[in-house]
Amino acid sequence: ADNLRSIPSMLDGLKPGQRKILFACFKRGKGMIKNEVKVAQLAGYVSEHSAYHHGETSLAGTIVGMAQTHTGSNNIALLYPAGQFGTRLMGGKDAASPRYIFTRLPKLTRLLFHPDDDCLLNFLEDDGQSIEPSYYVPILPLVLVNGADGIGTGWSTSVPNYNPREIVANLRRMMDELPPAPMHPWYRGFTGQLAPVDGKGAYTTYGTVSKVDAGTVLVSELPVKTWTQTYKESVIEPLLAAAASDKASELAITDVREHHTDTTVSFTLKMSESTLTEMDKRGLHKTLKLTSSIATSNMTLFDDQGRIFRYETVDALLRSFFEIRLPPYQKSKPAPP
């Protein structure tokens, strides 16, 4: 049961809690697309109509996560964020209370999960109540679009985000019986660099740093999933403290100016010329800890039979989705006259 809640399905990229939320949103009908609803109220509705047996607090947290749009979260948010749903300053932890924020179902979500496929789904039952299906069949593999992370019992999963346009292009290539083109992770709004390490699915992401003058550097982007406040506390403040201590480090900064917004990063660091020369010699990205790693070696997901399966490559995951998604299209076609 722990793995079921922690590891998503390869087909819809959803964990059971997320699937229950979508099911409840679809059940509310067109009103959910037109009118915003308070997150706390939606959590209550989901709990009532989809037999959710856990706390509404965790359900509200899941709704917030599905609506987040900051860099490093969702490439395509399945719910609309009306209010403070969290920013890259704290990786979404700065979201307001569910009592004060609203959401609705974007039209795009209903296009991804097309209503014509609903009659083909295997809806589950809980104590005589019809609840969400065992999995949805969206038109895109959302597990690649928005990525996934989870830790269960004996299993964990980590899937990076990919560019929806590249995924669409590859699905069209496969329909033309051509092999899919190689894809690399992509995060909406990320302006740094992402480079493959070994050709085996490992990547390094780099923030952006530039020299302004002989004693000033500007950090204008952080690595993927490195949050502004965390970076300030773990990297910037120790460098400032080093300058103030008696044992002054050769890698100490004398002043920092912050000009962030909720979508951009801007640290202006002041230091002596000798410090900047030494940092430059060692590598600015290394000394300012502006790198992070992404791996595709642990893409563990449930398949359409409910079995846990580890996909070795993005290519293999995309092919599996393609092969399983094709039959529902054929079933939903009208019978020839």
From TrEMBL:
Active site: Y100
GO CC term (a single one): nucleus
Top-level division of the source organism's lineage: Eukaryota
Residue intervals of the Topo IIA-type catalytic domain: 7-337
InterPro entries referenced in this protein's UniProt entry, alphabetically: DNA_Topoisomerase_II, Topo_IIA-like_dom_sf, Topo_IIA_A/C_ab, Topo_IIA_dom_A, TopoII_euk
GO molecular function, one term: ATP binding
Required cofactor(s): Mg(2+)
EC nos: 5.6.2.2
Enzyme class, broadest EC rank: isomerase
GO biological process, one term: DNA topological change
Keyword Transferase: no
Keywords: ATP-binding, DNA-binding, Isomerase, Nucleotide-binding, Topoisomerase
Reaction(s) catalysed by this chain's protein: ATP-dependent breakage, passage and rejoining of double-stranded DNA
Coiled coil segments of this chain: none
Protein name: DNA topoisomerase (ATP-hydrolyzing)
Annotated source species: Calcidiscus leptoporus
